[in-house]
Specification:
The protein is mostly beta strands. The protein has 2 helices and 12 strands; from the N terminus they run H-E-E-E-E-H-E-E-E-E-E-E-E-E.
């Protein structure tokens, strides 16, 4: 097995880009070689994310409540990074609302990732207790989206 050649200046440049732009991850592929540099982006009370060049800040209303949501058995988490939509179009009714009953497989949201619309479906039946996210928010992988009281 041959020695792997690592371009340390490329990794440093990518790390600098992450820090300067508050990005959580960047991947570069050249031929058969791929370099991925990642870091945690956490700030007290807010999460920073990027959409193209525009920087948006998401305020978390109640940080301790969000942490408790991770432990709730009915928490539905984001399956991917992207922009979340509560309805199929700006004029349409939201897929779900608080107090609504949902069945396993019912559509809850749409996440746009890489210009592709991906449905987020309920993994179980129950009643919508809390919708944690807002329309057109940037979401991270495994971020809590909604809490469903499991029936």
């Amino acid at each position: 097995m041959g020695k792997i050649s690592i371009d340390k200046s490329l990794i440093k440049d990518l790390s600098d880009l992450l820090n300067e732009n508050n990005l959580s991850e960047i991947t570069v592929t050249q031929g058969r070689n791929t370099v991925r540099v990642a870091r945690s982006v956490v700030s007290s009370g807010s999460i920073l994310s990027h959409s193209n060049i525009n920087q948006t800040e998401k305020k978390i209303d109640n940080e301790s409540n969000k942490e408790n949501n991770l432990d709730h058995p009915g928490t539905v988490k984001s399956p991917m990074v992207g922009t979340i939509y509560l309805a199929s179009s700006p004029d349409a009714k939201p897929f779900i609302k608080v107090g609504q009953s949902v069945k396993e497989g019912d559509q809850l949201f749409i996440i746009e990732a890489m210009k592709t619309m991906n449905p987020v479906k309920s993994p179980f039946a129950g009643t919508v207790k809390e919708i944690i996210i807002k329309n057109e928010m940037s979401v991270e992988f495994d971020e809590p989206l909604v809490i469903i009281d499991i029936s």
